[in-house]
Amino acid sequence: MSDRQGVRGHGPIRSKALLLYAGERTPHRSCGIALAESFDRPSAAYQSLRRGGITGHGQCGAIVAGQLLLGEFLGDPDPTGTVTAPLRAAMNRYLERVESELDRGPSPTLICNDMVAPHGEFMGGDRHRFCTAVVGQVAQLVDELLREHGVEHVATPVTLADGSVEDHGS
After folding, report:
1. 3-state secondary structure of 26
2. What's the CA gap between 168 and 46, in Å, rounded?
3. Is 168 part of any domain?
């Protein structure tokens, strides 16, 4: 069993990501899309992260989404620019924290299939609960690291399946 306790903290971005991924009060989003939407980013490219790059053989899509989000917010918008100091620092810290804190269960790797295998059927409830928790942890990590670098992203409201609006921004 893992000695990782999971990423602590429960900010509004984490709450929004959990709501979007869980799919109980709004339609379910994949891990990457839930994270992209939590930070109000266009989600189309994040669809490729579903189930570890569609196949399950790639790294956890939530973890990769976290890397991409850091790049979107802290990277140089000039396509010929160098890696910015804030992005380099945040990425190093992100990967350290994923390794030391993220609760990935008994998995020795960050490969999607390895992480979800102990949780039964991919479409089953235990696996869904596990992945929901991972999405929340990644959202919290990205939010904390962005704040450390002076980027505060306020969680925007989500329109729920019943038409009501859930506001995580307060």
Report:
1. coil
2. 22
3. no
